[in-house]
Write a structure and sequence with these properties.
Helices cover about 30% and strands about 15% of the residues. By secondary structure, the chain is α/β, with parallel strands linked by helices. The strands form 6 sheets. An 8-stranded parallel β-sheet has the order 13-12-11-5-2-1-15-14. Helix 12 runs parallel beside helix 16 and helix 13 runs antiparallel to helix 14. The relative contact order is 0.10. The chain binds 1-O-alpha-D-glucopyranosyl-D-fructose. 1-O-alpha-D-glucopyranosyl-D-fructose (TEU) binds next to loops.
Length: about 550
């Protein structure tokens, strides 16, 4: 069985992966068709974002029926075929479970709306305050109030996300039992893992006004969250061989993650945290233009690496997902150093202590969408914020500048398979525009090219399989205050790996704080990247150096 520490997870956004029936939307069969490509890359698990029945207000994160596949994505037979075919290739499937909220079209919510008390207690309904005010001043993550008024009931319901995503009431044991049954249902179908959407928001604390913020301090890492996760694990996947679980933790604290992903806490295998991806925000404010703060990025990554290790807890390590802009556009370079920077960013993640997650197209160096007209945007968050920023008086041009940098649509453009029509994604009209740079950036031109970004990712994945130090080694930052280099050491039983990265387009000098004798370069994005006491690092250069201990070099 694959150990999750030795594994690499590949995230698929099925809607944008491969369309096999010409309707412009990708589906499960598209994933099955590309399994050989994924095996070639070397990944172990596929995390598929939600494909359950959904009105798609938030692209499937608004689930209306947890046990059925949305016909847009295919059928149950398609899924079982995908599981079977993936298994033949040594790949297992992880499903994305959204249990903080359901779609308002879910039968439970519909019954609640009809006044059925049993189902009203599945959600969080509250009376408003005097003067027509909602129960609290909390804000939705997608903009506006987090409360929606239902005139027929004379009450508001809570929605931390879109108003069509009503928060579930985990205090109610019946809700928790429903969740467990749904998990067991999918486990019986043969899935081997779950990703839990915003799972640290499920336990709401006091319903009070937040004088200094948007309300998140009342429901983030809430009072009973650990109890709920332990119960869920115990009743379902806990202790299953080869089963992998990851929780998406929104605005979490490291102390809570010690428990969510602690070796002995019986909650989850690992966590996604996002602090390192807020280094181009102003505090928690995403809808601004702020240059990425490299020193902060390093400080956050390093503190999570060392902190989690000290507490025997495990990180999921990543740059990209369907909510994040493309990393090469964000922390790398789309121009002359496109290839070098994409490879360097890959190296940084894959040598850290944690399970690497890569998002479709990252292995090709796919870039941001550069949409410049509102019609091109699809995401509810982008559309809401366009309006909110305009209402604040910002010019259209400035709003587009911000969306181009931060919109979630950046990562949702179709996978670039070829340089041909619609990047080989669809014969029809894609639901979201294809990036015109597919003529240059595509899988077809990279798979056979030993110098490509794809080949580099393959090599990174092989490193993890070949050398235990990559998966299990201790972590230690090197020269943490250097203004352009991010470097660290991993060590295990006498084996030592150094990962040295120039994060800038300017060459720089880096004096290696450890003697370089005995090291060999196992991977780099430049030729002649030797271990030297003082390294002259070229633009976006990465050097992965390894010294073998007693076990020596394998053949
Ligand atoms: O995302 C949770 C979340 O809070 C953020 O990633 C958020 O989308 C972003 O920071 C807003 O700027 C998860 C899913 O990954 C996302 O696609 C869903 O929209 C969201 O939950 C609601 O289910």
């Amino acid at each position: 069985m694959t150990d999750f520490k030795k594994s690499v997870v590949y995230q698929i956004y099925p809607k944008s992966f491969l369309d096999t029936n010409g309707d412009g939307l990708g589906e499960l069969r598209g994933v099955t068709r590309k399994l050989d490509y994924l095996r070639e890359l070397g990944v172990d698990y596929l995390w598929l974002t939600p494909f359950f029945v959904s009105p798609q207000r938030d692209n499937g994160y608004d689930v209306a029926d947890y046990r059925s596949i949305d016909p847009r994505y295919g059928t149950m037979e398609d899924l079982t075929e995908l599981i079977r075919e993936a298994k033949k290739r040594g790949i297992a499937l992880m499903l994305d479970m959204v249990f903080n909220h359901t779609s308002t079209e879910h039968e439970w919510f519909q019954r609640a709306l009809a006044g059925d008390e049993r189902y009203k207690d599945y959600y969080i309904f509250r009376k408003g305050r005097a003067g027509g005010l909602p129960p609290t001043n909390w804000e939705s993550k997608f903009g506006g109030s987090a409360w929606e008024y239902v005139p027929e009931l004379g009450e508001y319901y809570l929605h931390l996300f879109d108003r069509t995503q009503a928060d579930l009431n985990w205090e109610n044991p019946a809700v928790r039992r429903e969740v467990q049954e749904i998990l067991r249902f999918w486990m019986e179908k043969g899935v081997q893992g779950f990703r839990f959407d915003v799972v640290n928001l499920i336990s709401k604390g006091a319903f009070e006004d937040d004088a200094h913020g948007d309300g998140r301090r009342f429901y983030t890492d809430g009072p009973r969250v650990h109890e709920y996760l332990q119960e869920m694990s115990r009743e379902t996947f806990g202790g299953r061989e080869g089963f992998i679980t990851v929780g998406e933790m929104s605005s979490t604290t490291m102390e809570n993650c010690f428990r969510y992903a602690g070796e002995d806490s019986g909650e989850l295998d690992m966590v996604f945290s996002f602090h390192h991806l807020k280094v181009d925000f102003a505090g928690n404010e995403k809808w601004v233009l702020v240059p990425a703060d490299f020193a902060r990025l390093k400080q956050i990554l390093f503190s999570w690496q060392t902190g989690m290790a000290e507490h025997r807890a495990w990180n999921a390590v990543f740059w990209c997902n369907h909510d994040q802009p493309r990393v090469v556009s964000r922390f790398g370079d789309e121009g002359v150093y496109w290839k070098e920077s994409a490879k360097m960013l890959g190296a940084v993640i894959h040598c850290l202590r944690g399970t690497p997650y890569l998002y479709q197209g990252e292995e090709l160096g796919m870039t941001n969408a550069h949409f410049s007209r509102l019609e091109q945007y699809r995401d509810v968050e982008s559309l809401n914020h366009f309006q909110l920023l305009r209402d604040k008086g910002m010019s259209e041009e400035s709003v587009y500048q911000i969306l181009k940098v931060h919109s979630r649509d950046n990562s949702r453009t179709p996978m670039q398979w070829t340089g041909g029509k619609n990047a080989g994604f669809s014969e029809g009209t894609p639901w979201i525009e294809v990036n015109p740079n597919h003529v240059r950036i595509n899988a077809q031109s990279q798979v056979e090219d030993p110098e490509s970004i794809f080949s580099f990712y393959q090599a990174l994945i092989r490193l993890r399989k070949k050398y235990d130090v990559v998966a299990y080694g201790d972590f230690e930052p090197l020269d943490p205050d250097h203004p352009s280099v991010l470097a660290y050491r991993r060590s295990l039983d006498g084996d030592v790996l150094l990962c040295i990265n120039n994060f800038h387009a300017r060459p720089c000098e880096w004096a290696c704080p450890v003697p370089v004798e005995g090291y060999e370069t196992v991977l780099s994005n430049y030729r002649d990247a030797r271990p030297e006491p003082v390294m002259r690092l070229r633009p976006y250069e990465t050097r992965i150096l390894l010294k073998r201990g007693e076990s020596g070099w394998p053949d």
